[in-house]
Amino acid sequence: MKKWFKATGIALMLGALTACGAGNTSGSDTESDVRIGYFPNLDHAAAIIGKEKGYFDDELGERGAEYTHFPNGNDFIEALETGNLDIGYVGPGPAINYFLTGGDIVVLGAAANGATLIVSREDSGIETLEDFGGKSFCTPGNGCTHNVQLEMMLKDIGLESNRVGGTVEHQSRIAPANMVAMFEQGQIDAAAAPEPWGTYLVEELNANVVTEWNNVFLGEELASVVVVTSKKFLEENPEAVDAVLRGHKQAVDYTQENTEDTLTTINDHLFDLTQNRLPETVLEKAWTRMAVTTETHPEALQAWADASYELKFMDKDPDLTGFVDTSRLDAILNQ
């Protein structure tokens, strides 16, 4: 097993990220600051680069920015709902679920596509999706982006989770730190994991790749990260939203043109938060399992929502009319 540090080290690292999630901010505390949220994950590269390279601060000028990192989408949405966050980066699943319950949220554009890897423990007996019957898997959340992607593929081959009476045991709300520990201790058979944690399980714990990121349900088209705000904040602060989107464009462009420095910057950012670094080989390989992009693919978001309804994560047929409005970002991209 290749090691830069033991799996328990990465578990401590990820645990630290969770512990210092919502409410951990940097920047000025003045009331006029634009509060930007993100996750300390690889597919949030645009957010991290935008922060670390100063793109957001430069575009916002005197108004300034305040940054908060979150351990999961539920905490992000709660901050947005309670007025403690203005704009930021989150997975499409929590954003869609919030919108469908009447939440004030709008998608302004995408930040990354892909980044879901289906992996199994080395001695789990799972090599393909057909092997999941009678086995267990975990996901970061119940009905989260990755959960729906895996369960939809299982449903297509006649398998269902125990949530709906099937034979596949699902354990939800398992943080990446706990995924690592559970794989190491043989407590779970498989995972639908976000990057870079899926690749970490493969490279450091010899996990099997069951389904590559581009072969999962909606793999190459579904945004793994979207930029969102509330319609209220957008209506009251259009110039600030445009400033953040200009910074977002610069950050995406930078990541696409400067892979080596992007990965170094992200690892340095994680080190600042946790005093640990991810193995370079993990970051490099995980980077090939996602795409930092502004291409949103609204039809993929609707297809994901339809799948979530089909899997009975939702009670009503989802209508995402008004959920996506990329007009402001499109105007910036076309300048």
From TrEMBL:
<keyword id="KW-0732">Signal</keyword>
<keyword id="KW-0472">Membrane</keyword>
<dbReference type="GO" id="GO:0042626">
    <property type="term" value="F:ATPase-coupled transmembrane transporter activity"/>
</dbReference>
<comment type="similarity">
    <text>Belongs to the bacterial solute-binding protein SsuA/TauA family.</text>
</comment>
<feature type="signal peptide">
    <location>
        <begin position="1"/>
        <end position="21"/>
    </location>
</feature>
<dbReference type="Pfam" id="PF13379">
    <property type="entry name" value="NMT1_2"/>
</dbReference>
<keyword id="KW-1003">Cell membrane</keyword>
<keyword id="KW-0997">Cell inner membrane</keyword>
<keyword id="KW-0813">Transport</keyword>
<dbReference type="GO" id="GO:0042597">
    <property type="term" value="C:periplasmic space"/>
</dbReference>
<dbReference type="GO" id="GO:0005886">
    <property type="term" value="C:plasma membrane"/>
</dbReference>
<protein>
    <submittedName>
        <fullName>ABC transporter substrate-binding protein</fullName>
    </submittedName>
</protein>
<dbReference type="InterPro" id="IPR044527">
    <property type="entry name" value="NrtA/CpmA_ABC-bd_dom"/>
</dbReference>
<dbReference type="InterPro" id="IPR010067">
    <property type="entry name" value="ABC_SsuA_sub-bd"/>
</dbReference>
